[in-house]
Write a structure and sequence with these properties.
The chain is built from 2 helices and 6 strands.
C-alpha cells in the first residue's frame, strides 16, 4: 500500500488573489460596491464595498453595479460609491500618527488611596483589604508581605 502525497500534476492557480471580485457569474472584474437586500422593505441597497465579504451580500464591479435593476415593486437605494482606487488621505495619516504618539506616551499613574475599613466594593460586598486598585474587571492586589 502506498501513501498518496499531493498531486504532482497540480497546476498553481493564478486566479486566487486578495482582491475581491464581482459576485456575478463569469465576471472577474474587481468589486467596487456591495449589494444588500432588505426583504422587509422590498429594497435593494447598493453601497460602497463592504469592509469584508458578508455571506448574504453581493460584491459587484462597476459595470454590474451601474446596470443593477430590482424586481418589480422593489426600490433600489444607491449610496455614494467611489469607483476610483482608494488612497489614504492626509487626515487618515495624521490620525494614525497621533494614535501612535498617544500609545507611546507614558501613562500617568495616580496613587489610589487604600480602601477604608468597612468600605463597600463595586460588587456590593465589603472591599478587599488586599485590593489596591481596580480597572474594569481586573484588580491590583497588595503583596502579602506588605
Amino acid at each position: 500500500m502506498s501513501r498518496r502525497g499531493p498531486l504532482k500534476s497540480a497546476v498553481p492557480s493564478h486566479l486566487v488573489s486578495s482582491v475581491r471580485r464581482c459576485s456575478r457569474t463569469a465576471c472577474g472584474r474587481p468589486a467596487v460596491a456591495t449589494l444588500t437586500y432588505v426583504y422587509a422593505d422590498s429594497t435593494a441597497v447598493l453601497g460602497p464595498l463592504a469592509t469584508y465579504a458578508e455571506p448574504h451580500c453581493y460584491d459587484l464591479c462597476a459595470v454590474h453595479s451601474e446596470r443593477l435593476t430590482a424586481p418589480r415593486g422593489w426600490e433600489v437605494v444607491r449610496l455614494a460609491v467611489d469607483t476610483g482606487p482608494s488612497r489614504p488621505s492626509g487626515d487618515d495619516l495624521e490620525a494614525l500618527a497621533n494614535a501612535v504618539r498617544e500609545a507611546a506616551r507614558p501613562q500617568e499613574r495616580r496613587p489610589t488611596p487604600p480602601p477604608s475599613p468597612g468600605a463597600v466594593g463595586p460588587s456590593g460586598r465589603g472591599a478587599d483589604p488586599m485590593e489596591v486598585a481596580r480597572r474594569g474587571h481586573l484588580r491590583v492586589l497588595r503583596s502579602p508581605d506588605s
